[in-house]
## 1
Amino acid sequence: MLGSDRFAECLRVLLSLGGIVAYSLASGHITQSVPLMLGAIACALAETEDHWRNRLGTLLLTLACFALAALAVEWLLPFPWAFAPALALITFLLVMLGAASSRYNTIAGATLILVVYAMIASDAVGSRSGFLRMPLELLAGAAWYGVLSLVWSALLPQQAVRHALARLFEALADYLDAKAALFAPVRGVDRGALALAAARRNESVVQALDDMRILLIDRIGNRRPRGATAQRLALYFMAQDIHERAHSAVHPYDELAHSLFHSDVLFRCEYLLRRQAGQCRQHADHLRLRGPLPQDDRAHEALDDVRSAIAELGRQPVPPTPAIRQALDALYRNLGAIQRLLDHEAAASVPEQHSRHPLQDPAPQSLAEGWARIRLQLTPQSFRFRHAVRLALALLAGYLVLLALHPRNGYWIILTTVFVCQPSYAATYRRLSERVAGTVAGLVLGWAALRLMPPGPWQWPLVAITGMGFFAFRLRRYAAATAMITVFVVLCFNQLGYGETVMWPRLLDTVAGALIAALAIRFVMPDWHGRRLRLVLADAIRSDADYLAQILAQYAHGRHDDLAYRIARRDAHNADANLSGVAFAVLREPGQQRDGDLLLRFLAATHALLGHLSALGAHRQIIIASGDDTQVGSAGAQVVEALRQLARHLQTAEPTRWADMLAAPGGELAEPSSSTGETARLVLGQLTLIAGQCRRVAQLATEIGDRR
């Protein structure tokens, strides 16, 4: 429990809600409790894991947005003819504000939720509230939570960083386990399915790396990293290096399994990877609980066993082919490098040791840059613009339904629509089912609580606990989170004298809001991922080409993990993770299941392509021989151009068949000669595999295009 990454947020929420309960009971102002609690919850939803100095600025901005939103509701709510268009306009503006950065996106989303909370609070207190009382109480609750969060951040400045690193190492452990499964030389294994499982795990690693990078940028700022921050930065770079090496694929797994079926070398590689996954989990536990970091001697023994098994293969009467032996040697070096990183025997590759800016800051550096980002999204072709229009119209429709059905207690229709209507079809329908199921469960639990618990102050502790429970489950088990917040609502309204009267309206309003969200995502400027799959693929291939160009420069000039290389590597992995997410989202859209097998093979090919690039990145070293570097440079430039050409054709959707334009690029690459050095031979082999995967991606893209 103490080591959970949700513990700190849940404890802050519990303290804030508990403080509001204590104040309401002591002062006797029970009606104030609802807006105070709703304000605290909205502020917690707007919270970002910044350093306390930056969190102070974020809190002030959040409170300013909350104040404007609450005042707008206070002034316009009595006039439905004015409030309806204002609600749609505010929704559109807030969604578009999120285009500036992830921080503004979080604040904008919480502000939109506060708009609905202000409507609910006004509905709850009714005529007992004076002018401006409701906005002030909402802001007071938000400010109370904000102060608690600031104090927490000042007292424990590194806690968020440690937990983010722990999540990163947990994700790495899961990914290493997924990669280990690919090494089992067992007949009948569906390695395509295993590769897709690894691709999904890779999405989590990429997201964890991005989250960690943002936290480190916030802590470092314009200063040189030092102390605990410098240590966390080194661990982040270590995780990056482990990820690149774990992602690398030096040879197709099916061919390895077939060639080495009667050897135990792949079993030993699988066992070693699982031991290394266990070490990553030990690192995560160490970061969360600050306990001792145990050493895994069995991992060292497993690494020695891999080396011995490879050496034994060379002494067989029929040794492996040179390509297989080269792949095994590269695999052993890769596994050994991962082990040394986990044992801290080798330092991670830190870019530009004396640079004041070791990481790229994704946030806008000025208001002008932030506005430029928003302006770029102000087009019907923009994913965000379409979602902004869709959500604005959905909330407008929800408000009109509210006025037609029951103006009192009807604001749950709008709140449900806000939470359910997600940018994608798949996410919306998943959230819809979870929201309805959680509401039903919460109403049953709320009814049981009203029957079993005596009325009055005895119910207040459960109010605070269920409010905390919403935050404990909201990111991983949304149905359970909805059940918790439903019990919270029932108990809060019961303190105002009509707890049971809101139960049936809550259920009906949830169904109505979910139905509106479903209709909106289906018919209002729908964003079908299948239509933009080609563009997402083009971005992934273009990022792969840039990554390969950076890798080849390192073979020409020597290994140097500068910022440009890390940016290219991160962009390639982010584009691959985005493609994976889009491909799986396509499979959940109507009428796309018929292409399911083709899409999955397509995703496996793109992931394998990036795996070969990662193998080149993991084994970077300067090629000294002049003949070798010329041969590698020529072949590398050819493959980079092939990738960029494929990206251009995907981007423009030219009538030329994508497969035809890459007429066997692998066959055009120069074969290594007997005098070619080992490093150049490895690079040329990987370039041939990359060219082959490029051709396969083009063929699959053509098949998908022909079916659409």
## 2
Amino acid sequence: MQFITKLFHTAQYFLPAMLLVACGGGGNSNSPPVTQPELALLAGCLSCYGHTDAIGAAASFTGTGGVATDSAGNVYVADTDNHTIRKITPAGAVSTLAGTAGVSGSTDATGAAASFFYPTGVSTDSAGNVYVADTSNNTIRKITPAGVVSTLAGTAGVSGPTDATGAAASFFYPTGVATDSAGNVYVADTGNNTIRKITPAGVVTLAGTAGVRGHADGIGVAASFFYPNGVATDSAGNVYVTDAGNYTIRKITPAGVVSTLAGTARVSGSADATGAAASFSYPNGVTTDSAGYVYVTDYGNHTIRKITPAGAVSTLAGTAGVFGSADATGAAASFRYPYGVATDSAGNVFVADTGNYTIRKITSAGAVSTLAGTAGVGHADGIGAAASFKIPYGVAADSAGNVYVADFGNSTIRKITPAGVVSTLAGTAGVFGSTDATGAAASFQSPFGVAADSAGNVYVADFGNSTIRKITSAGVVSTLAGTAGAFGSTDATGAAASFIGPMGVATDSAGNVYVADTGNYTIRKITPAGVVSTLAGTAGVSGSTDATGAAASFSNLTGVTTDSAGNVYVTDVGTIRKITPAGVVSTLAGTAGVFGSTDATGAAASFSYSNGVATDSAGNVYVADTGNHTIRKITPAGVVTTVVGVAGQEEFQPGALPGALARPSGVAIRGTSLYITTKTGVAVVYNVP
């Protein structure tokens, strides 16, 4: 489920106004007045990641995705957030095979002159070629051993499910890629919920039907998947798929017969058992070895799982619910959101430990070591740059000037005072769960969205639990709606209601809570009494239809906000949608399926995977355009401008606007200040234009 993974990114800032430090600049509400718009650091550390080519721990990565090996023992990594493909020799020497850090694009060229756009999956063939799922370009790329990059299938910026040859084929957010001995390439076409095969004659759909999500075992198009992420092959021609949204591992025979190897659809957990009795939590990467064993990165559990040909599942390394960066053996080792996985001929397993920005190695005996990179994020409470976060996503501000952050990677809710003092409001770093309690005794499962109301309460879209949580000003956590682990689309009251992977949450002046129910493609409304209804969209139906209520459709909802008139605004991939109090849905800006960075009016404007959204008192809408590394402003008339950052420039550059941002994801506004969660921290724009 790409929206759970990459979704990858996080934390930063503070110091007296106008002062620049190594990590950036800062300011607070007691600083001398700032008369011009200015970007500064509020809390966190912006140097906790990087793109250094070096040996071992001296190297650095940012938001790694897939990993693959070749017959010579080299390891290839999709350095997702850097838009590059990296190579690691058996001695741990890291180099950049293709692309340039911080430069996104779709250029076919050699080495540093080529460009990618959030590449995720990576695989190799026997000739030494590297294949890349260039996720945000919706293409499959090929890199020769000499570093020559070409586009094997698809066209950058064009999404769809078309089976065809080369550029005429289309994909929708492909994330996994694998090869077989016959030279075929297999693709986990995540956004289409299908598994695709690229032969010399062109692209065909091997299993699943575009736009149909489910968990049916069958042959070819009769089968169904729910956000398949990883794909791998074995020597017998079978294809293995991590069906992330279903929490299962699927198997496809050469004849196209789809079965479930391990896990039960929509049942999450960490049980080691055989077949349907085993359980996973958002499995992502998958690979095989010569003996027919299957290895899986169990992203939500922070573990590496091993599956025998008979479907017996065991935990190779790590302990479910415990994250960290410990090098040790078996359960004593720890990971943070492991994503990509690969094996070599000697039986070693390599892991892209995304949350730690490292590449790990596991021997056949389960001994874990760090091959390259240094773990560089954390959960420190402190002032400004002394604080640290791990993938902060949602951000909200209250009337007193406090800022609240959903610290996704740490599964905590953080609070930042106007003076830049960071504390943990609720939850404990590294402890995952769904416990309703006070402060550190409460627990969350990868919280994504956060909102505040006028009474000082904080609401959380608890993504991993598929619930909506409420935190009082005293830190008392309760579950407002939904039941942890119970996934669905039921409209009801409190625990009887159900959601699937909610990502965005917002409040209005009447005390209602609005939810971007991402997995259901719907916008839900919760009254102060906890009564849940569906405001717009129909569960299980994805699309981009402007209409009223259930007749409208959405594709990939992430952010949600409201204005003083009771309208609701949502970010829907490359568009910004508006919903009136009567449930009438229209597209305020952007066009479905069209990605870019164009400033224009309405449908002529374009975005690249927008996430957070906020409104000001004048009715303007501000959008965190994550893929472009910018903040966009939309007037009530639909006029779009870029107010912070430069499209395609991924870094933090404080000072006079436009400045520069690194993958902004959440946005909130209070008065004339705009708060932004970025890759590793929180930034602020004073006197936002």
